[in-house]
Write a structure and sequence with these properties.
The structure is a single chain. The protein is mainly beta and about 80 residues long. The protein has one domain. It has no helices and 7 strands. A hairpin with a 4-residue loop joins β1 and β2. The protein is elongated, with a radius of gyration of 18 Å. The protein starts with 5 loop residues before the first strand and ends with a strand.
């Protein structure tokens, strides 16, 4: 995804990419609790027993100018590029 691309949001709106901030959201790894816990118990920081990959990883923040003449920041994994090159 780059500046000037035409994109579609999950709800069908179409816009143009104005700015891309690389690696803005997320992380590659996180603290995880792999052992099973009883239902209703509190999770504490000292219960961590490993590191693991996150579900979505790192994504970009994209400034999109929508057809309604307003711009918003969106996560890059919520947009679909529809520009043909």
């Amino acid at each position: 995804m780059k500046v000037g691309d035409l994109v579609r949001s999950y709800d069908g709106h179409i816009g143009i990419v104005e700015k891309v901030d690389k690696d803005y959201y997320g992380a590659r790894q996180a603290f995880k609790i792999y052992k099973s816990l009883e239902r209703g118990k509190c999770i504490r920081g000292n219960m961590v027993d490993g590191f693991g990959p996150t579900k979505d990883g790192i994504s970009d923040r994209v400034l999109v100018l929508w057809g309604h003449a307003f711009a918003t920041y969106e996560k890059s994994n919520t947009l679909e590029v529809i520009t043909n090159e």
